Amino acid sequence: MKEKVKVRDRILNVATELFSRQGFNQTGINQIIAEADIAIGSLYNHFPSKNDLLLAYLQRKEDEWFEGYERSCKGTSSAKEKILKFVDFRIAQQKQSDFCGCPFTKIISEIGSQEAQIQQMVESHKSKQRVLLQGLFRELKDTGELDRKLLAENFFLMVEGATVNTTISRNMQALEHVRKFIKKLID
Amino acid sequence: MKEKVKVRDRILNVATELFSRQGFNQTGINQIIAEADIAIGSLYNHFPSKNDLLLAYLQRKEDEWFEGYERSCKGTSSAKEKILKFVDFRIAQQKQSDFCGCPFTKIISEIGSQEAQIQQMVESHKSKQRVLLQGLFRELKDTGELDRKLLAENFFLMVEGATVNTTISRNMQALEHVRKFIKKLID
DNA sequence: ACATAAAAATAGATATATCTATCTATTTTA
DNA sequence: TAAAATAGATAGATATATCTATTTTTATGT
């Protein structure tokens, strides 16, 4: 009853694992084909260049991010809960990736903004998160004297900073601090 | 009256520029010696390996960071001002580096936490910033119902997230949003 | 100020390894 | 029988690092 994983998926699965864990620049084609146990010709059949593989990897991460967040929000109804889930989701991501951090942030550190297509995907990914959060914060009943849009932006930035810093420290404290703080602010 | 820059400094200056702009992994020894206009033997005389050069680069960044912040605080007296200067300093850094982001955060994205000595330096750098901010927030007269230590931590994380995201978007908005937000919170 | 010895810097070849990518020829799968 | 995947050689570029031999700089003693 074992499902045979197609070659293209084996490549992308291994590349995903390695790009996340080791980084893009420190992952060679040879390691990918070895660990995926496929021929180098097969790789270049599916992905004409290493850069195309990177694009496919990021596209998958993009899709999985929003699917994953939606799924983790199943059962929540209030905006307040969904905001807290936003932090919880990042905590879960960091746990399951062993503190790899955000793949989009990581790739910009690795290759800069030279590759226009990648720069575009990263910016778009972050932008979509901001829009999502702005929507949630707009639903909040009372935020005291705090502008909701400004609060949404800074909550996003806290989580971003906390994600980076949990990756550095390899413990979850920073993200937990954000959770505690925002809970106070919106409760 | 032209000061002759010593070989070791020429190497470190060029390496600094290239590691910041292009990244560590995307900067080769050959490019460094070419742009520094020195012989390869001289480089390996001063720095036994590329990793030693990286350590020297980070150590310099560490020293310059706190010197730079101190200098930018000259003339300010209140903790409130110094907290706002903290954001201004990061804005200035991003401007003058053309949005290179934090070198410590960047190197972790590039090489991970494998190199213990580097991991150590990065963690220590962030830790020192937290301590500095905790001290400043302790001095604040009134933060309403907000715990000062928690506020300091989350301010730090906001700035971290904003730094990363100004590097991604290549504009200063995120850092300006943090400034506006914290000003409201502590004013 | 000048000669000289030690240290530093140079050019440039080279070793060794790795990287991405291409190609051919053969086998497996659909 | 066509398409997909394989093994494996190889091209061509680039990486870090070492080595030799020579020149330049610096420091020291007279």
Automatic annotation (TrEMBL), chains A, B:
- Name the chain's protein: TetR/AcrR family transcriptional regulator
Task: Look up keyword Nucleotidyltransferase and say if it applies.
Answer: no
UniProt-listed PANTHER family = HTH-TYPE TRANSCRIPTIONAL REPRESSOR NEMR, TRANSCRIPTIONAL REGULATORY PROTEIN
Keyword annotations for this protein, in alphabetical order, are: DNA-binding, Transcription, Transcription regulation
Look up keyword DNA-binding and say if it applies. yes
GO terms of molecular function: DNA binding
The HTH tetR-type domain covers 5-65
Residue range(s) of DNA binding per entry: 28-47
> Which top-rank group of organisms is this from?
Bacteria
